[in-house]
């Protein structure tokens, strides 16, 4: 009897300890920059002026060092991939804490927010700015960082301070304070900054990424984080629209087993894709290709040659407001299937087509695929963004260097 009681107490203690180490970060959807630019009639001009090499700047580390396309300096990034991002979460920096809305981005590894000393019009009153002089735990670094964008340079200084993500406090976290932010894209963004979730080798601001510091300071039980992203911004029956879970996974948010895929290159969360098929007939990369799983990109991107053919197969046509298809034909469009680790991950038209009301009550249907030529030593890369991740629960395992996918439980429309 005593042994049974001790076992029950041990199980209760273990369960409590594990649950206390799981950090739930609610992710809230908001209108994307692309939808706002489109609504304001500025999208076409914005893309024409700033589109060249947009993905090269974000994924510059994929290019061979001797390649002619690598014309940017090491501190290079781009905001264009964030144009369709809709999910943001809250963090606190400093003592007492100052609140910021950030994109939790597996496609980068740095944390940066605007500084109170930012001189750009984009900082203005639109975004919250970090006030170093109000934080008693602030530590000035003195080094300068520079991030290149198509419309100019972001400049800032590096610092250290206390970071709080929900109920977890990270001491002495390295981060960047931007003092100059170029371009209209920053004005339109609902987020204040970026919190990178990639590998340390991807970091551009010297120091450990946030999740690495959480591991080093033993703030989470397991070296795992997972994402649940809902497709619908508003629905009934549930308050959960999106969630980042630090330290584990939530089995109530997915069904079926998790299919694990090894990380092929530690930097981005990069995996092997067996093949991509449209309606099981037309196949892309039949001998396998590489893909980056990126929560900082909403669309699915792939090599131009493949994406142009894929757009034709789904009946999508380029226009000055984006790649569109006939909404009336939505139910008859083909399915697109990614084969990962021998398992099929199928996207229906309702998943890869985004319905948007414009020009009053007129509805447009935009393709969720985008062309991007991203070279790497392992060949051309695909990008699996939120179009894919809203259908599949994703688990990022740093302990075993692997990514897991399972079918996400979907809410119903309200």
Topology:
Elements: H1 2-21, E1 23-26, E2 28-29, H2 33-39, H3 43-50, H4 54-58, E3 87-93, E4 98-105, E5 111-114, E6 139-149, E7 152-165, E8 168-180, H5 184-188, E9 193-196, H6 210-216, E10 224-229, E11 235-236, E12 242-246, E13 254-262, E14 265-266, E15 269-273, E16 275-278, E17 282-284, E18 289-293, E19 300-302, H7 304-313, E20 317-319, E21 322-325, E22 336-340, E23 343-347, H8 349-352, E24 353-358, E25 362-367, E26 369-371, E27 381-384, H9 386-389, E28 392-397, E29 402-408, E30 412-413
Parallel strand pairs: 4-9, 5-8, 18-27, 19-26
Antiparallel strand pairs: 1-12, 2-3, 3-4, 3-7, 5-9, 6-7, 7-8, 10-12, 10-28, 11-30, 13-29, 14-15, 15-18, 16-17, 16-22, 19-27, 20-21, 21-25, 22-23, 24-25, 28-29
Overview of the structural elements:
This protein has 414 residues and is α+β, with helices and mostly antiparallel strands. The protein folds into 2 domains: 23-48 and 77-217, Acid Proteases (Cathepsin D, subunit A, domain 1); 250-408, Acid Proteases (Cathepsin D, subunit A, domain 1). Helices cover 17% and strands 39% of the residues. The protein is built from 9 helices and 30 strands. It has helices at residues 2-21, 33-39, 43-50, 54-58, 184-188, 210-216, 304-313, 349-352, 386-389, and strands at residues 23-26, 28-29, 87-93, 98-105, 111-114, 139-149, 152-165, 168-180, 193-196, 224-229, 235-236, 242-246, 254-262, 265-266, 269-273, 275-278, 282-284, 289-293, 300-302, 317-319, 322-325, 336-340, 343-347, 353-358, 362-367, 369-371, 381-384, 392-397, 402-408, 412-413. A 6-stranded antiparallel beta sheet has the order 1-12-10-28-29-13. It starts with a helix and ends with a strand.
